[in-house]
Amino acid sequence: MSNELKANFSFVIIPLMSVKFLQKLLQSENALDTLYYGIGVALVTLSLAAFNYVSEKEKMDELELHPEEEETRAQDL
Question: Which of 10, 13, 23, 28 has the most crowded CB, counting CB atoms within 10 A?
Answer without folding.
Answer: 10
